[in-house]
Amino acid sequence: MASREFVTCVVCQTLTIYFIVAYENLALNKPAWQKNPYPHRQNVGADLAVDGRKANPPKSDGQCMLSHGNDTAEWRVDLGGVYSIHHIFLQYMTGTSLWGKDNYFTVYFLGFSVYISNTTNKDEGMLCFKDTNYTKATIPNPINITCPYYGRYVIYYNNRTHPPYPEGYSELAFSDLCEVEVYGCSTPRRFGLACSTPCPVNCLMGRCDIEAGTCFGCVKGHNGITCNEGCIEGYFGNDCSECSSNCVNNTCHNETGDCLTCEIGYIGKRCEKECDLGWYGKGCSLPCGRCRNQDTCNHFDGRCPGECEPGWSGIYCNEKCEDGYFGLGCSFPCNNLNCLNSTDCDAIHGECTSSCISNWDGPFCNYCAPFKFGELCNNSCSDSCPENRCNKTTGHCFACSGSKYGSFCEYEKEVYQLPANAFDANIGFIVTSSILIITLTGIAIYVLKQKCFPKCRTYRDQSYELTLTPSTSGGYANIQTVQLEELPELKTSEIHESPLSPVSTFSVDYINVKANEK
Asked: Which of 187, 192, 236, 452 could make an S-S bridge to 257, C-beta 3.0–4.6 Å?
């Protein structure tokens, strides 16, 4: 178990002795290390300084550590964790002589320092003590150093690196310690003589002064030496929550947390919302400029992420092009010489905003006005061009009016004039001729039909009847002569089952002819 330092209080009236348990020795038998250990000697290592044995007088006979002199001397003990420390006890080696100005070892310890650190690097810790006043006659042994801090490592340090040294100092530094005891609370978050009182709940990391119980720091939002007072500025509520970072100066209502004022680019009770698209600035009250491609501007400063729309300029793209310029970045000069005012043009496209000079037309006044043509548009189209329109370069008419012809409609066509009654006579002739032609056509069709029938009948599988009359010569007169060649598609016929000759005269009253298909 850790050794304990006892404070004895004698109450004389009752002769009763009370032992009040104080702080524990946190360094007892803990790992120790030293720089420049004494060579070629056993049982003189760094751990002898924390073995709990206090020699009286402290000699070097197996009870004290020894070191080899050098320009720096260093020793440390690892407490094994971060503890609340009250004070540190140091005892130097004295040898066989009494401690005082004539003691051989006093010169080695003058100018020493003691640190508490959470790492093995003393410069990352807290300086508890540095000797600047002791002399050979006044340096005490042992010595108690009050150091109410938290730490894991207790470091003893001395150096002889910057001569000349004060009177009485040795040329080399040593760390010949017999005992080092570190007293404090082994139970975390405690303070008081018996380490029985909890530190205030709002102390940072639960750490407080080992004697007074005051906090070394407060958790966020709390205030006061014991961190139990109202929230500091920038915090609100019962648990002292942090105000929104979007509140100006992180200041908010100490109860609701509502921001008193929002940072630029934010709105809302707690300034939690960025400006709506198209707005920026304090209170999101400023409209964005004309960013290209309808991009929205930065909600803080209003700057466009890229270029401005054509016709606009400035860091916020809210400035129209200066007179005489137009386009992207307002980088194109107005140079429409045919504008009534050649430097006055539309800021976006460069079109003339005033009218054109005489004979010119169009948004840019760059082509001829109606009825005009030529390089300078100072020539007029011919009056014979329909609506006085012509090619703007050559002046040629697209068509000509009336009897005019030629590229410029400059020529007149000759027209033959008929007598006044010529039109009526012609109409009579045409009507009479038409009637005659129709009549003759009808007669011809009728005659053809009469002549063709019946031999023109060529229907398949039909019977044809031919009438024959007897002749006066005892034969048969050929009243109707039938040429077989005149009957298309008729090859054979049956007349008393006899074949027909190419031309035949028959003395029968009727001949039934049956058509056969080819």
From this structure: 236
Domain assignment present for residue 212? The answer is: no
Contact 159, 71 (CB under 8 A): yes
- Kindly tell me the burial class for residue 236, based on how many C-beta atoms sit within 10 Å of its own C-beta (0-12, 13-18, 19 or more): buried
Rounded Cα distance between 423 and 340, Å, is: 60
Q: How far apart are CA 337 and CA 357, in angstroms?
A: 9
* Pair (181, 37) in one structural domain: yes
Burial of residue 242, with CB atoms counted within 10 A of its CB: 0-12 exposed, 13-18 middle, 19 or more buried: middle
pLDDT tens for each residue of 277-292: 889 999 999 999 899 8
Task: Report which of 134, 160, 130, 157 is spatially closest to residue 145, judged by C-alpha positions.
Answer: 130
Query: According to the model, what pLDDT value does residue 60 have?
Result: 63
**Same domain assignment for residues 412 and 495:** no
Separation of alpha carbons 157 and 136, rounded Å = 18
**Nearest Cα to Cα of residue 252 among 233, 239, 238:** 233
Nearest to 380 by CA among 408, 411, 412, 338: 408
- Residue finishing a domain among 171, 186, 201: 186
Structure tokens at 30: 């803990």
pLDDT band at 415 (very low <50, low <70, confident <90, very high): low
Structural domain including 483 reads: 453-518
pLDDT for 416 equals 56
Q: What is the mean pLDDT of residues 296-306?
A: 89
The tally of domains found in the chain comes to 3
106 pLDDT tier (thresholds 50, 70, 90)? very high
